Amino acid sequence: MKKKILSSILSFFLMTGFAFAKTEVILGISAKSGSLQYTTAEDFTKTANKMCGNKCVVKFFGNSQLGNDKELMSKLKLGSVHLALPSSMMSSIAAEAGLFDMPFIVKDRNHVRAIEKNIFWKDIHPKIEAKGYTVIGFWENGVRHITNSKRPINKPSDLKGLKIRTPKSTWRVKMFQSWGSSPTPMSFKEVFTALQTGVIDGQENPYTNINGAKFQEVQKYLSKTGHVYTPAYLTAGKDAFAKLPKDVQQILKKAAEDVRGRMYKTAEEDETSLEKKLVAAGMKLNVADKAAFVKASKPIYAMFAKEVSGGQKLVDKALALAK
Fold first, then answer.
1. What pLDDT, on the 0 to 100 scale, is given for residue 319?
2. CB atoms within 10 A of CB 159
3. Dihedral angle at the C-alpha atoms of 259, 111, 279, 173, nearest 10 degrees?
């Protein structure tokens, strides 16, 4: 009799779905809808949920709904958010990640893949893990360009006196200081209003973020500098991620890898289509003097080599991979 009762109870829970609750995975990002980070996160969510079956469910929150990048990184350690997508701020977590903030160090996306394989996972990721985080997906934010409301930026001296928003990245701030501007670190969600009200004169971002945040509505000049390539890191709190079921961990890692090909294809297409779109919206485009910017960037490399342990070796290794 007892066996029949137990069997009936178990059958009830199985039929109603209460026996084995799905593991809930919360993904929060600061990026705006329409940006490459946002569309990649959406793709990841759909891909992961197809793979999850009854094991897990990924719930996605974009547009800083769960906080800015700094807040999200804190929540990763607490485990209240399971995944986030920091980009430039990673150099504030691990100084070695500032390698990607070195101006013009990345030649192209093939070079990025080589740096990821030979430097990021071997030399940089262990430093990130030592800070309590683990990266499960190496994605893209994009190639950065400068916009402002005052004048075209052809060479570094054109930046003199301009208040340029930067991410909260130590090296991005030093870069724009050395180029003569007044860098203003600021959360991305605050930038549109700051540009609109004149609190800042300009900012620097990939086309996908410029378009996604509608900066063309409050910025007149688009200067094609391509000064930095920024990855986006699908990141978890190391301890919190380890507490997820092993099969769920593997699903999330597999989904993160599966979206990469589509992400890179979209990124390459966006560089052409979005540039045309921004110009059609009224922005005045100019191509900056790359040689002048490269020359003015030498002090940044010297500082990185001096201030970051093993910094010169990282730079030399990255440059060698471009050949």
1. 97
2. 25
3. 100
Report which of residues 2 and 163 the model is more confident about: 163
Contact call for residues 255 and 95 (beta carbons, < 8 A): no
Distance of alpha carbon 41 from alpha carbon 26, whole angstroms: 12
Tokens of 129: 């893990």
Q: CA-CA distance, 290 to 183, in Å (whole number)?
A: 20
C-alpha triplet 254, 256, 258: angle, nearest 5°: 70
Angle at 31 between CA 99 and CA 147, to 5 degrees: 70
Nearest to 242 by CA among 113, 166, 127, 136: 136
The pLDDT of residue 19 is above 50? no
**Alpha carbon of 272 to those of 148, 268, 276: distances in Å?**
20, 7, 7
State the alpha helices, DSSP H only, in 186-310: 191-197, 207-212, 238-242, 246-258, 260-280, 290-296, 298-307
Long-range interactions of 17-23: CB distance < 8 A, separation 24+ = 20/54, 22/52, 22/54, 22/55, 22/56, 22/57, 23/55, 23/56, 23/57, 23/244, 23/245, 23/248
Q: Model-level pTM?
A: 0.91
Tell me the C-alpha distance between 69 and 183, whole Å.
19
pLDDT band at 13 (very low <50, low <70, confident <90, very high): very low
* pLDDT at residue 323, rounded to an integer: 78
Q: For residue 12, what pLDDT is reported?
A: 47
Residue 17 confidence (pLDDT) above 90:
no
Contact 207, 125 (CB under 8 A): no
Q: How many CB atoms lie within 10 A of CB 265?
A: 10
Q: Are 206 and 36 in contact (CB under 8 A)?
A: yes
Report the distance separating Cα 36 and Cα 53, nearest Å. 26
pLDDT digits (tens, 9 = 90+) for 244-285: 999 999 999 999 999 999 999 999 999 999 999 999 999 999
User: What token pair was written down for 279?
Assistant: 């110009």
